[in-house]
Amino acid sequence: MAMAARRARPVRVLVDMDGVLADFEAGLLRGFRRRFPGEPHVPLEERRGFFAREQYRALRPDLADKVASVYEAPGFFLDLEPIPGALEAMREMSALANTEVFICTSPLLKYDHCVGEKYRWVDKHLGPQFVERIILTRDKTVVLGDLLIDDKDTILGQEETPSWEHILFTCCHNQHLALPPPRRRLLSWSDNWREIIDSKRGCGQ
Q1: Are strands 165-169 and 134-136 parallel, antiparallel or unpaired?
Q2: What pLDDT score does 202 carry?
Q3: What are phi and psi of 11, to 5 degrees?
Q4: Helix 63-71 crosses helix 52-59 at what angle (to 10 degrees)?
Q5: Alpha-carbon distance 184 to 117, whole Å?
Q6: Taking burial as the number of CB atoms within 10 A of a residue's CB, which of 32, 111, 123, 201 is the most buried?
Q7: DSSP secondary-structure letter at 180?
Q8: Catalytic residue at 146?
Q9: Which of 18, 23, 146, 151 is an active site residue?
Q10: Is 65 a catalytic residue?
Q11: Is 167:186 a contact under the CB 8 Å cutoff?
Q12: Is the pLDDT of residue 28 over 80?
């Protein structure tokens, strides 16, 4: 009986927000070109590295603060477009039996606008039931879960061995990376995310 109860424990899926649910990169490029039309920019196909600010700094040092001013501005996070298929996948995922879905997102250090706008974005696109499932943290390693779907290629924090397996969600800045086995990648929301979740059923339960 106890063994059956352990097997029935839900798979807990943590889903990142920017670059996974909300199209941060497209919004940033669009905002930068609108705000600084005469400045050089980094096309999405040339984006490398998680932090856009650092790539713009390498392009020209003063561009780092300019690109940061775009994503630190009011309205930036709220106006981001959903990643194709993300909203449908979240609804389908949350409806699966024995599956818990949480949105696990990190706020900017300059959090004035982004925190409230992240909540409003989720409410606007996914509804109040998902607002209840937002986990806002600068350190995702301390959050318990079976899977973390995130576009950041390396996630470090207090816990050297987090409870979750990191599934790298493909984004313009990480698509060139070759992942060493046994690391796994989700190419898009059209990829077989159900298979990844099912692979965790019965594992360590």
Answers
A1: unpaired
A2: 80
A3: -80, 125
A4: 150
A5: 30
A6: 32
A7: P
A8: no
A9: 18
A10: no
A11: yes
A12: yes
